[in-house]
Fold these 4 entries.
Entry 1:
Amino acid sequence: MSRSDLILGIESSCDETAAAVVAGGFEVRSSVVHSQADEHARYGGVVPEIAGRSHLREVHRVVEQALDEAGVLPSELAGVAVTTRPGLIGSLLVGVSVAKSIAFRWSLPLIPVHHIHAHVWAATMELGPKTSPFPAVALVVSGGHTNLYRSLAPDQLEPIAGTLDDAAGEAFDKVAWMLGLGYPGGPSVAALAEEGDPSAFRFPRYRPKPTPGNAAPRPLGFSFSGLKTAVLYHIRGQDALAPTPPPDEIRDRADVAASFQEAVVDALVSQTIEAAHREGVERVLVAGGVACNLRLRSKLTDAAEAAGLIATFPSPAFCTDNAVMIAGLGHPLLGAGKLADLSLDAAPR
Ligand code: KG4
Ligand code: ZN
């Protein structure tokens, strides 16, 4: 790999401060992620002011560690890629400022990266440089997103459908809170679900309604607020204002976790397979923090296979926020000359 293939990636859009060095878009040389989960845990979600301050505190150490672990000097880099959108503005600005100062100091190309494109690139990385996944349907499921896209190129996603309310990861986080589990909720709900029966309770699976009098196919989409409320009523009884019982008094806690997870997974699987059929593609790319979920990975893999499709997931370490996906996507963007100058700004959306 020539030295001109090494890209430093910086990610700070939410509550992970991350830096990585990736060669040629696919070869991971280092990956450092500092998670702020502990700092936000007692609030049950990310507090923007705390996130921004924590990024400021950690970012230089994280970037230095990523360069050290890769054994790379800044002067040997081909470029610096950084998440510019979407995300928390105060958090994004920390990564963007650091990337700009490195690019200026070392006269390096500055590569702006869209966080969602990068999540999808993490799935593409699994295929290696010789297999193009395009066109594909991409399912992006994280704490902030639950969307289906037509994926046409590394930086080209066209929206097909999304969620009407909560993101799937957000639903996991809220149900974790109800069950007295830690933040982030996805991993803890999934762990408890291992001990439960996914068919114990039949929680609702939202399906968009067909438009009356319209012959067009039923629209695609997601909604998790009804499911969340169903879980809440199940735990508290019919009085939603009643206090949540202490975790050890919640009846069938593991069954609730497993049945909730099953409802989320079923909705994600059915809409994704349907979208792939309608788009006439052969591949589904799955990305974002919820793509770590083992039940989703196995049910979507099986459903795709049964439908003659291939589902590709990032390796678990690169599902949640990381900088490998930023540095990786930086490579094709640099090749295409999609660069920014030092007036680069961050954008929350
Ligand atoms: O992609 P990500 O790190 O950050 C965003 O861009 O939002 O995703 C974080 C989300 C959280 O809501 C977390 O609860 C969820 O991904 N998550 C999971 C699992 N691991 C993380 N959800 C379900 N099962 C998991 N194993
Ligand atoms: Zn993300």
Note: The beta strands are 6-11, 16-23, 27-35, 79-85, 110-114, 136-141, 146-153, 156-161, 283-287, 310-312.
Entry 2:
Amino acid sequence: MKNHLKPSLMCTLIALGLSGISRGDDLPPQRGLDNVSHDQVELRGGFWGPRLEIHHQTTVPHALDALERNGHVTNFDKAAGTFDGELRGHHAFDSDLHKTLEGAMYSLQHFDDPDLRKRVDGILDRILASQQEDGYLISYFIVKGLENKWSDMRLEHQMYNAGHFFEFAVEHNRLDGGTKALDAAKRFADHIDGIFGPDKRHDVGGHEEIELALIKLYRATGEKRYLDLCRFLLDERGCQHNVKEHQRYDPNTPYVAPEGEEGDERRAAMLKRLRTRNGRMQDHKPLVEQTEAIGHAVRAGYIYSAMADIARFSEAPEYERAVDQIWQDVLGRKMYVNGGIGTAQYGDEGFGDPYLLPNKTYCESCSSIAHVFWQHRMNLLKGEAKYADVMELVLYNAALSGMSLSGDGFFYQNPLQSDNGGERRSWIGLACCPTNLARFTPQVGGFVYARANKQLFVNLFAAGEAAIKMEDGKTVKITQDTNYPWDGKVKLTVSPEEESKFDLCVRIPGWALGNPVPGDLYRFADQDTAPVALTVNGKAVEAIPGRDGYVHLERSWKGGDVVELDMPMPVRRVYAHEKVLENTGKVALMRGPVVYCLEGVDNKDLDLFKLTVPRDSDLTAEHRADLLGGVTVLKGQGLDENQKPVKLTAIPYYAWANREKGAMTIWIKEPESATGADR
Ligand code: FUB
Ligand code: ZN
């Protein structure tokens, strides 16, 4: 199949304006920055362009085929009464379909593909055929018995399914203003709003997600009740559930089983455990009192995203305070060097103890995706580049690793070390990761820019063009020419609709200033940095960022103005904080935002876990257009276990497990003499 790219963004925006079609113009936030949504940004060429094509050509149809094969669509037919076969899967099955459809909507923003559009709308019709009179829309419970709906809030993912449907519906509307899915989402959300709320039932879902989706629904519809429902669900976490009024949860109160479940001791014990400190769902105490990242890492990423959003879209300083502290905890003590989160130390797919970061770990693909969403929202809330630094780190490393280069192989877990290698699977029964990846990749354009009053922020460097609507309604076209992340040169051509004064805020990445991450969890061995060069229309400008991490270029911009950024990209050795005992005496390699690993296939006959890289061995970067879709590899000399010099090749971590199976490691030993006091 051939990809048909849509006409340029500028043409599309003008055409939509003339046609009078209304498309999801999101409500702006009360404070902080506004996002520039993916539909205003076209990534072409460079690093991301080919990935978006693979996503469109391979990932979306592959995922839809798998979902159809595995009963995710016929479950809705069953619920609508048009299918006689069995209901398949589990209670979160709907969410996998919604996520993939959401991914297809992003793709359709950029590729003209009537067949895919027809396929999505055909599935949407089958979903909607099962929607109940009262708006309820979860196939599993419609089939199993509606008398059980909303009965098990902790273990079954009803609100989670709903949230994913809302997100799909918002994007379905954004594409061309069609309201079919959005109307259904509103009916479903109104149904939920009719049951849960301050004067109604006080309860929350076990797997967070609906909270951030409600904010999207609020922004797309302008209906404040969705924002209020989000706030209610945030406020109720850590409180007594299934009650009629707001009550603080007391861990010492005996567990009261819901009607019909009395006497089920095993279940009672499990439900009680879920509310303990490491009990998965961030439900052990009110969110505004939480200061540490604990529990299931995917759920955590989603709820922290919603906390950041509620502080941006309403008056909620207590949520900002809490999420700030949690952020410090993650960045200071609980994040892997590649941006991954979640060690599953407590068997809960969750965060572990501070500094306990084993390299053979869990790091679910979904937790990296949730982590990107969270860091993106932190950047928007605080307007500081350091959050975009982390977002970029997760994006190019832990998150990208989840999917094969071919777009149809997936990891659930993403360890930093593997003795025997890993094999991505073409599908995973518990399909949260493949389907999350199917909706994540095409959202990247939406992370590149942000805007505020008379300010335009460049957060990521990615080849392509954007047509960004500023507050005054005027459009600024901005083009990026770059081969980032392989090269630190970026050319930005800025063309406002008409000459206008605004502040172009260009992020200078932490890695270019000598810091692999904000904080001291990881550091470069060598703090020396070559200066970043910046020019505007060929004239040198100081590239020293302000306290917010951006260089502010405030001037009157006119068509064709050019900003050029040149960030030297040396190979960097990275060390972990001394409390991360797992990595004592080991070094990781980075270049720009990319974290590297050694893989067996490039380092034949070497024991990756015994060889060492002396501190003074030269490491050089070499671009290999023919390898792994085009990557820059690192070459250097190491010592094998017999101290014999050997040649080493490191590849970007995200690209591992795309060739023959073999060992892999991000952290490499240093010879003992290099690991003493001089570190
Ligand atoms: O429960 C839904 C998703 O499935 C979670 O986010 C993942 O961890 C997996 O358990
Ligand atoms: Zn997952």
Note: Confidence is low (pLDDT under 50) at residues 16-23.
Entry 3:
Amino acid sequence: MTDTASAAAQAPAAYQGPARVLSGIQPSGALHLGNYLGAIVKFVKLQDEMECLYCVVDLHAITAWQEPAKLAAQTREIAAAYLASGVDPKKAIIFPQSAVLAHAELGWILQCVARLGWLDRMTQFKDKAGKHKERESVGLYTYPVLQAADILVYKATHVPVGEDQRQHLELTRDIAAKFNHDFDAPGFFPLPEAMVEGPGARIMSLRDGSAKMSKSDPSDYSRINLMDDADAIAQKVRKARTDPEPLPDNVEALALRPEADNLVGIYGALAGLTKAEVLARFGGEGFGRFKPELADMAVARLAPIGAEMRRLLDDPAEIDRVLADGAEKATALAAPVIDETRRHVGFWRPGG
Ligand code: TYM
């Protein structure tokens, strides 16, 4: 048994299992462009490359208060966003986290593996709890351990996420390495890789280029929601904060211009271009010309997704079928892993 993260550095036996992807999004408010570009776009791409599981992490959502009457609808909305964006239930497993009990079970076991000192370093808890951490739920504090369980209960090897989740993935690797070490099970859990790279990894607020685009920002003008209609999208782009200078012709010159940098990055992520390519097209132009182009690009890409989400949510039977089917498949994949985990920990089994 070790008390530090150093187990990860002790050259553990490499994991031999197949590559598998897992990621999740919280049903805790409207999805925005950051969630789409930082996560969902990668979900769609990866479904053609590896076995993929995408959950709606409702157990995570309740670490902050969620209206019980709305939680199931919020869960369906995230599933609708997956489907409308192109995640195909024939290729990827889509399911609600709370419907697969093994997440909570492994979450508890891993709480007994993770060290308090590791959780004390988690910046997301500090950001969310602010000055009054004693008033937050215990679940908000242990949240990253449940995230590790989400990943490890399927022995997932790859985790597509935005930049803000990097620290949680480091923790997941430390927990996996410590479990393997403490229970003398080399290579049992993989040390999963965060797939953060990509132009949409950190989309910033439209009102403040130094703050992340976020569900919890009180200003709706700070973000483009996936369910916004074409007019709302165009208006938010038009009102996005900028500086008075024209766009530069090189990426270095964006360094001290966070709002311009963000809008160029968003255009690039939507158009499949690098920032340099966007600047090759728009360098020297003012925002008066760039913003309408960006608005058109955003509307062309997002308005059909919003429309398809509304169609799906009008008749939730289809979403419910996908979620129930996904929960069954995910439960079957988690069962042998949780079984083996129990054996490693030494829990009682009949005749065992
Ligand atoms: P959540 O619900 O806050 O965000 C969902 C995904 O969106 C990404 N994201 C962003 N990407 C770019 N720019 C932004 N402004 C932006 N805002 C959010 C997030 O990085 C994330 O990928 N802890 C996770 C949910 C989770 C999870 C997991 C993820 C629970 N268990 C297991 C992966 C694997 C979260 O709070 O995401």
Note: The domain at 220-313 is CATH 1.10.240.10 (Tyrosyl-Transfer RNA Synthetase).
Entry 4:
Amino acid sequence: MILTIEDLDLAHKTVFVRVDINTPVNPEDGSLLEQSRILEASETINSLSSSKVVVGSHQGRVGRYDYISLEQHAKSLNDLIDRPVKFVPDIHNSAAKNAITRLKDGEVLVLENLRFDEDESKDFEPKEASETKMVQNIYHLFDACVLDAFATSHRSSPSIVGFSFLLPSCSGRIVMREVQAMDRMLKESDGRFTTILGGSKIRDRLSALESLIEIKRTNRVLLTGMIGILFLIARNQIKYSLEIDDEEKYLIKAKFLLETYPNIFEIPVDVAIESRGKRLELPVAELTPEHKILDIGARTCEIYTQIINASGAILMSGPPGLFENENFEDGTHALLTALASTSGTTMISGGHLSAALEKLGIKDKIDHLSTAGGALVLYLSGAELPLIKALEKSAEKSIT
Ligand code: 3PG
């Protein structure tokens, strides 16, 4: 059991709200590419209209172009909600503490990117997390903690499991909605559950994949994106290097999955590469190590569309190609269009796919749009998510 914001009396209280407004960023100028997670987060913040709300989120990963300040996010939030939103370029030192203590009822304060504190990128046990500087420096300024970062529920960082270890905690609106939607989808799949995986984050996807199949949550897996390339290498269909850490380990896992479950996976039969600034489609057999794979090809889209049409429920997580570049958006658009017109229950996961659906104008044709990526796939795979566990523990404490 977990508590919701209706279960705690949060009026006139100072509340730490952990959201996930980690947003795709334009690599050229650092601007935000879309607003879906910010829009979603505004719902819980809006409903805490008489509390002093302190918003925390991470953005990007250390060392990457998307590891940026939350100042732009705070401005967007300010435009979306009808109360003043302030930003402080600090997390738990004096500037943040002063700003938190000066908050009045109804005001909202956004803290700086929580990953600017290195502990936020690490995993901790809840007690250990509660002893980090981030939590120790400011938790006493809060009366309660609202966890609404469903998309980060697979991380056990201080802001997810540390504050909630010490404070009365409950879920926000997004967590409740996501959990209900996924449970409904599993019920409606009628044993014909297809998972389409893409994007660039291999680690989370691979670990979830095995459990998804093992516990019979999915019986077809259509691979695209980086994980599709990984499986092409694992099946010796291409000689290629993804140039990522732990590639060898991932390849061993992919080979194991292919051997153990030979009838479950579909792997691209053709792909798109860049040639003289244009899209060029090639059958997989014609690829050489110099080619940079940037999308799936038209034949693969046809095969995948047939499978989508025969499925009871379809989850698509992560884009099949570099859809931000018009030359490589075809695969993403073809599969999303197939999802939009099929009769099965459909769910898409991750902000990138939301942005692509928006461009196609078919957002309303998908049954559930989740802004979560890896966390959602892990939830479906039956994994225990640290954020959900933290909420359950907090509810237990409040009862005893
Ligand atoms: C996501 O976009 O999946 C979440 O914000 C988590 O981000 P992370 O994979 O960098 O932890």
Note: The mean pLDDT is 94.
